[in-house]
Please model this.
Amino acid sequence: MAHPTLADARELSDWRPPLGVISVYLGFDPADRGGAWRSELRSGVDAALGLAEGAEHERKIAVRETARRLLERFDDDELRPPPRGEAGFLEVSRREGQERWWGVGVMPVLPAVVLTDQPVVAELLDLCRRCEGSGVALLSTERVRLLRFAAGDLEEVADWELTIFSRDWRERKAQSTPNPARTQGISSSGRDQYGERLEHNRQRFLAECGRLAGERLRGLGEVVTFGPRPEAEAFWKGLGSTSMRTELGGEADLISIPKGELIDEVSAVTARLRAERDRDFVEVALEEALGGSRGATGLQETTEAVGEGRVEHLALDPTIGSSAEALVRGALAGSAEITIARDGVAELLAPAEGVAAILRY
Model:
């Protein structure tokens, strides 16, 4: 399944067909046997047709024909999942116009069918981010399971196990000695040395697995580990030469859990970590706007900064309306990072009219 990328969003943000675009975001819940998505689709199409009623004749006819093609695409009895969602953009045209479609493994947060002059891309950016891949490492002292997580799906990548040929400590045959205490001391010392060597081998094993994981997961931005922190820290040492972010997802022992039973846990943890990073960024941006020189908040100040190409990282609540789309397009044109704020993170932005930014200068 080809997921949308940041490059796709940037390309779409520059697209402006003469008669407009119908943007489509649909989510398919496997538990919904009634096909609620069909009602959302029909309602959105009706709204688009109503919006076009007051338009000039050519655009009105073009919207009708585009709506007909859209409905025909979904005119079947399928319940649709998988994928869990679809994002599509149709050029308004009387004849066959350009279309772009992606199936995604996650559901859009804001399902919609919208007629506008340009594509609605804020939701697409959120889907891009939620579909990004993450490495997942399940750790124990002598075993590492490596998986790749993307768009709600897990893929096994590697499974390494430390093999120790003899776990038994064996005392070397020594000459008899009249001092039993000395013999006991040698025995204890030998055991201690064996334990140290064993622990050293385990640490080397975990670090080497980290190095191999960096090679197998090249191109991903983060690795989330599950297992005891000491093992995680040894594993992270092997990742030290990469640029991947490391996160501890939890210290529970998941090493033997079947892949299918891991998906909900991994999905929840990666979503939580993403929300924590978003919250941290928004808090920094708001503090910088209050007492520093590189922050901006509010629609007017942030819009001006975006227009001047000064925004390094933009955070916004996508529910603030058309201003969100204008800000997103401007930020994409200026190669800024963009965080689409949801839930509690969006609440932090409410006093700042739903938008904040860190500036380049």
In short: Residues 12 and 119 are 6 Å apart (CA to CA). The chain has a mean pLDDT of 88.
